[in-house]
Specification:
The chain is α/β, with parallel strands linked by helices and about 550 residues long. The chain is built from 12 helices and 35 strands. A hairpin with a 2-residue loop joins strand 16 and strand 17.
């Protein structure tokens, strides 16, 4: 069955397997295409934009992911988890004369929200969507990490700076999509490497610089065997900013063009389509997905089963149109929640069962719009609300049941969220769709007070007290003590751009959540790849890649 997306008007297919899933979840076929559905979910999560404000409960100074001008009630996260307030106090009746989404957005405005998602962490006050961390700073969307700074999507990592999508690694810097590495610097798509610099798609390598497509090699520079002395001499140059920038440019413009690129990265999968898929079965159009089965149109998830349209989390089953909902079963359109069973359209709820349209609940059952009901009352009223949501609104808008929350009701401005990173819009485009938009702060940067020496060995402790100006965005930034110690220990030059601009550069190195039709650069067989047609790389199908590289 082909449908036309009510958002972008593009046609998309709903096949027989999709229809079986929708029938199982008791929802109709989606009215948005997979891309627009993903964009809509991503617009509800802000990891990296933080503001200063005061807790609405204690008046203590806090940082928060919610812009104070948007009018949300925000508590410091430890206060939010305490028993000092009752979310049922905000309960209200459902009004059958108004759309569900409109009423839910009003409830979100008044129920207190935690300032950041930071759970079971130590000395990690300036992080968001982070659990089990220690001594971390400005790191986001990560788990079980220690001594990490300026990172995103890290798992079981230690002493890493400026990395994104790195798993079980230590002492890494500026690495992207890597795993089980030790001292990997400026590496991408590398696994089980150590003491490697500017390497692409290497496995099991040691002491390599500027290499690509190597397996189990040691002491190589630009894919040529060298002596230990030659390697150490080349490595010593990375304390110089000029030398580092030269190889950084060569890596992007030459090394990655000479390398063979797999059409998509898929390892140990069965019947899986998408990119960056690991140990998955029956996964359709998924990205950055791990150990999942019977899943479709999802991304950045792990250990997920029998779910469609899921983002950022995992260890659940029978989830549809969820964003950041972990350890849950049979839930539709829940956001930033955990341990939810038979719960639909809930936000910031934890350990709840049979709840509908609730915000901020913990360990509750049979609640609708934060109001407690008996089991019989809950079943009767929730059924009536679902029927109400199935009816088109008076304005002719499609039914609400089975659809995710509209972007215009997001707690965040569009350009604060993941949606802007994956599906960027201009201010004019966003406002024309009735999305919120956050203007840049109109502040004049302080003049730079210190000229950074080219070599890290010439940088004194004094730099910790100096004001620097980013060479990319012209905003101020500082070097912190832990950061300086890392650069000195690893003989790496001081960066001349701020951590936000460094993040943007890393993010752009990652493949987009989209597949294009191309042909294998070697055998010319048709392939689907996350490399857009304008990327002038050698892109091989799986068979040709394995013959060439292994």
């Amino acid at each position: 069955m082909n449908k036309s997306c009510q958002n972008c008007t593009q046609e998309f297919e709903v096949d027989s397997i999709d229809q079986v899933f929708y029938e199982r979840m008791k929802v109709g076929a989606p009215t948005f295409c997979p891309t627009c559905r993903m964009q809509r979910r991503l617009a509800t999560r802000n990891d990296r934009f933080l503001y200063k404000t005061k807790s609405a409960l204690s008046s203590d100074s806090i940082i928060t992911m919610y812009n104070p001008s948007h009018g949300f009630t925000v508590y410091e996260h430890k206060e939010w988890w305490s028993d000092d307030w009752d979310p049922l106090k905000y309960g209200r009746n459902f009004d059958f004369n108004k759309p569900f989404f409109e009423q839910f957005a009003q409830l979100q405005k008044v129920v207190p929200r935690f300032n950041i998602f930071n759970s079971q962490s130590e000395n990690s006050d300036y992080v968001n969507y982070v659990t089990h961390s220690k001594n971390c700073y400005l790191t986001y969307g990560s788990w079980f990490i220690e001594d990490c700074m300026y990172c995103h999507t890290m798992n079981e990592c230690k002493n890493c700076l400026d990395c994104i999508f790195v798993d079980k690694s230590e002492l890494c810097y500026e690495s992207v999509d890597c795993g089980e590495d030790f001292r990997a610097f400026f590496c991408q798509n590398c696994q089980n490497v150590s003491d490697c610099y500017f390497c692409f798609d290497c496995r099991g390598c040691r002491n390599c610089i500027g290499c690509y497509n190597l397996k189990n090699q040691e002491y190589n520079i630009l894919n040529k065997k060298v002596s230990k002395e030659e390697f150490e001499k080349a490595k010593a140059k990375f304390g110089s900013c000029n030398s580092l920038q030269e190889l950084k440019k060569y890596f992007e413009e030459t090394i990655k063009k000479e390398a063979v690129h797999r059409d998509t990265i898929r390892e140990n999968n069965h019947n899986a389509t998408g990119d960056l898929l690991f140990n998955c079965k029956n996964a359709k159009h998924c990205f950055s997905t791990y150990r999942s089965e019977d899943i479709a149109y999802s991304a950045r998830c792990f250990d997920q089963k029998d779910s469609y349209d899921f983002d950022a989390g995992g260890k659940g089953e029978l989830l549809y149109e969820n964003m950041s909902n972990d350890f849950s079963f049979n839930s539709i359109s829940c956001t930033t929640s955990e341990y939810m069973i038979n719960a639909h359209y809930c936000d910031l709820c934890f350990h709840c069962e049979d709840c509908f349209g609730c915000v901020g609940l913990r360990h509750k059952k049979y609640c609708i719009f934060n109001k407690q009901y008996s089991e019989e009352e809950y079943k009767e009223l929730s059924a009536k609300i679902i029927e109400h949501m199935k009816k088109p609104s008076s304005g002719g808008q499609a039914c609400e049941w089975g659809e995710f929350f509209p972007i215009k009701y997001s707690p965040f401005a569009y350009n604060e969220t993941f949606a802007q990173e994956h599906y960027p819009l201009t201010k004019e485009e966003a406002l024309s769709k009735d999305y919120k938009w956050q203007e840049d702060e109109d502040t004049t940067p302080q003049p730079q007070t210190y000229e950074i020496p080219d070599d890290i060995k010439a940088v004194p402790d004094q730099i910790l007290n100096e004001v620097l100006v980013c060479e990319s965005c012209n905003k101020n930034y500082k070097i912190l003590d832990h950061e300086l110690k890392f650069y000195r220990k690893e003989n790496l030059a001081i960066p001349h751009i701020c951590h936000n601009c460094r993040y943007s550069e890393r993010f752009l190195k990652r493949p987009p959540r989209h597949l294009w039709d191309r042909t294998c650069s070697h055998c010319e067989k048709p392939i689907q790849t996350s490399y857009s047609p304008d990327k002038n790389f050698k892109i091989y199908c799986e068979e040709c890649y394995l013959k060439e590289v292994y």
